[in-house]
Design brief:
Largest sheet: 5 strands, mixed
Oligomer: single chain
Number of helices: 5
Helix content: 40-55%
Strand content: 15-25%
Structural class: alpha/beta
Radius of gyration: 15 Å
Length: 143
């Protein structure tokens, strides 16, 4: 008996999800979770749009986790998983106005207003340290 494709993918991406959730990120997996969170949130929020790609594994997720060691940091840290939780990711992207969809990517919100965005193009071919510096610079300014 073979495993369904959906179940296989859930198992494959579980460690990729856990890398962020184990670091305290709240995973939003449904449209309702995204709406409920963003419609009621106060303060600052870092959103990581997670992905299965290599730059997410080697750069984006590690940088997001390390950035939480900064003295100033967001009040909330959340994640959606592109390609896996498609409806939740599409809903999150509706809140990221003015930016093309990109995964992985990171957005810093102040309330419902996006104040800083890091698209895939600013993650690929960068070092973890430069991405952390980008994030913590935004935290120091907005948090």
């Amino acid at each position: 008996m073979s495993m369904s494709y959906e179940e296989y993918m859930r198992q494959v991406v579980q460690p990729m999800r856990a890398e962020l959730t184990n670091a305290g990120f709240n995973e939003l997996t449904t449209v309702e979770e995204v709406e409920n969170f963003l419609e009621t949130v106060e303060g600052t929020t870092l959103v990581v749009i997670n992905s299965v790609c290599g730059c997410a594994a080697g750069l984006a997720r590690p940088a997001a986790v390390v950035s939480q060691n900064n003295e100033k940091k967001p009040d909330h840290i959340v994640t959606v998983f592109a390609g896996q939780d498609r409806d939740a990711t599409a809903k999150m992207r509706e809140y990221i106005k003015g930016y093309e969809p990109s995964s992985p990517s990171m957005a810093l919100f102040k309330g419902k207003e996006i104040v800083h965005f890091i698209p895939r193009e600013q993650i690929e071919d960068q070092s973890v340290e430069s991405i952390v510096a980008n994030l913590t610079g935004a935290f120091n300014t907005h948090c």
